[in-house]
Amino acid sequence: MALIVQKFGGTSVGSIERIEQVAEKVKRFRERGDDIVVVVSAMSGETNRLIDLAKQVSDQPVPRELDVMVSTGEQVTIALLAMALIKRDVPAVSYTGSQVRILTDSAHTKARILQIDDQRLRADLKAGRVVVVAGFQGVDEQGNITTLGRGGSDTTGVALAAALKADECQIYTDVDGVYTTDPRVVSQARRLTKITFEEMLEMASLGSKVLQIRAVEFAGKYNVPLRVLHSFQEGPGTLITLDEEESMEQPIISGIAFNRDEAKLTIRGVPDTPGVAFKILGPISAANIEVDMIVQNVANDNTTDFTFTVHRNDYLGAQQVLERTAQEIGAREVSGDTKIAKVSIVGVGMRSHAGVASRMFEALAKESINIQMISTSEIKVSVVIEEKYLELAVRALHTAFELDTPAHQGE
Ligand code: ADP
Ligand code: ASP
Ligand code: MG
Question: Record's Gene Ontology CC terms (predicted)?
Answer without folding.
Answer: cytosol
